Amino acid sequence: MPPPSGTLSHVVAQPGGGASPGFSMSAQATRTRRPRPAAAGRAGLFAWVPVLLSAGIGVWFTRPGQWPDAAWAALAGLLLLSLVAAQMALPWAERGRIGWGLADGLRVGAAGLSLMVVGFGLADLRNRMVAAPVLEWRYYGPVEGRLVEIDRSSRDRIRLTLDQPVLRDLSPDKTPARVRLSLMEGADDRLPALGQRVMLTGHLGPPPAPAAPGSFDFRQYAWFQGLGAVGYSRTPVMSVSPPESGIWTVHRARMAISAEIQARIGGQAGAVASALTTGDRSGIEEATNEVMRASNLYHIVSISGLHMSMLAGFVYAGLRYLLIAAQAARLMSGRATHKQAAIGALLASAAYLWLSGGGVATERAFVMVAVMLIAILVDRRAVSLRTVALAASIILILNPEALTSPGFQMSFAATIALILSYGPWSRIAPYLPVWIRPVAMLLVSSFVAGMATSPIAAAHFNRMAQYGLLANLLAVPVMGTFVMPAAVIAAVLAPIGLAGPALWVMGIGTEWMLRVAAFVAGLNGAVTGIALPPGAVVPLMGFGACLCILCWRQGAGARRLTPLAAGFALGGLMLAAAAALWLTASRPLLLIAPEGEAVGLMTPAGRAISKPSGGSFTVSTWLSEDGDITTQMQAAARPAWRGDKRDRYARLPDGWTVWHLTGKGSGDRALPHCRPRHVVIVSEKLAVPGPTDCLLLDLAALRRTGAVAMDMGPEGPILRTVNGTLR
């Protein structure tokens, strides 16, 4: 018999029988609860977590460390508003005031806004946690500290990083947490041990500012590394006290392993093998780094997800085969061998993390691999967008600044692209002959990873390796088949003194990779210069790609506009905007070095440098960001500048002239040139009592502004500076 009119057609049953608590039959008789439909794509919402955290972190990095209290008050208000909306959405929907779709939208939107605020807060919290004094002037004198890192600079000089430094006449509250010094003259013959307090005489200064507005900001990188001063030393390194014990014993053991590998294999092959195994890259010469970059194999010498996944995959497969063989021989009972193998691979990855020194890139790789292995242990897919999202979220929570690093961007771009390509590959592979599948899979995976990472690499490094696919096809299989397995076997056999054969195999593999790199780098047109894109290009590419990936559904939006279709369209527009910005961007007409030591004028033949020497690092950065693969001496030979080597001048558009005066007495020589429609750049300080007829940039002004970029507008020069101030 149907229920009487005005009553519920059913009552939600409870375990003990009866109606739901809190509802009387009379209340149910007057209010009908609407059934709640399943939200489309609910299972995929977790993939948005790192994207939204990144959005908040990215907003913070638009003005790092400069957000006023009013911004924090606004964010707190947004967070409170989102929490209220999320809390009230369901009750409103249950009472029929809003639809379930709108309620779900409010809750999802509130969660997204909250995650963005959390990302912003994480970046600011990290900024406060790493805060340490930065040296604000040039220092010369004794430097004492504990040696914590040894590496090699881009100029092939050994560098020492010291923590707990002591500087003469500098109070502890003004002393940087860490300093780094390059050793100039053969002082690397007898280096002290890690964990040992040392002393030397050094020149120190604050971390250098960008070479031009929009260039890489080493100051920001150094801040998050706790590096408050950098410099050099020409004196021997003296030991102050014996090496410390504890964790430093472990680090010294790692360096001893590195030295043994280099000694047993020898040459640059041994240095590369040591870098792959222990993370110690101090033995790799800059010439080797250069050919690796030109061949797109530089990622091989930096421990990343590729190395960690190869090692974990080898250990996982080897252990699983051994366990299956043991079960077949009735040496052990039948258990889940894949989980036991995953535990072994996880322990091996942790050991590799320790052995490699635990750098930021290595920690990122370990988190990614660990998440995938743990997914196996809890019966989840090891490789999926969920596991990648979890790994990215963990890294962003621990190190929000990783978002701005090319390593983070490229490793996750490659991983996501490979995951997305697995579906099409799995449908095509069965139609290929068995013998060709491994080669085809390697070709496809290298192509997919290269396509995903090439735009990011070009944006950050201003170059593109044209034959990188060829180099990776020739080198990566050797690394996965010989080098990494040999490293694991050598580690297992080393305690009993039988690592020699495995190291020999490893040396052959690394020597092959170096030969491939040299061959590919020597091909005509191996490297193409790429101009630096505007700052908005990389964020637009990243968030646009994320929107396209996460919002794409087969057939979505075919008949009507849905939120997912709108998100996909927005992602496509962001990618198109990034491409348009990059393709239409122009480089500054004139660039001025932060100390006035060099000036670069853009000409039809490329940027012409005012002097063949001086400011070499700044000038090389300018040329690289112009997409110009040339040297400073070649750029100085381009027709633009005239005059003697100390007083140089060049013609600018609209009848303007630029003068660059350097050397002793340049200030006195500058005043006669200070006339209307003249830009005068001086490498000395000038005492000018009042306004001048020219646009004058002396050493004092440039130290306030940092590097300067100049273009010509309808009313004269338009200046952009690193520090945003001219007076």
From TrEMBL:
Main location: membrane
Membrane association type: Multi-pass membrane protein
Region (Disordered): 1-34
Organism: Paracoccus homiensis
Keyword terms of this UniProt record: Cell membrane, Membrane, Transmembrane, Transmembrane helix
UniProt-annotated location(s): Cell membrane
Segments forming domain ComEC/Rec2-related protein: 276-553
UniProt-listed PANTHER family: DNA INTERNALIZATION/COMPETENCE PROTEIN COMEC/REC2, RECOMBINATION PROTEIN 2
Every DUF4131 domain range: 67-236
Record-annotated membrane-spanning stretches: 43-61, 73-93, 297-319, 340-355, 385-402, 440-462, 482-505, 536-552, 564-585
The name this protein goes by in its record: Competence protein ComEC
GO cellular component, one term: plasma membrane
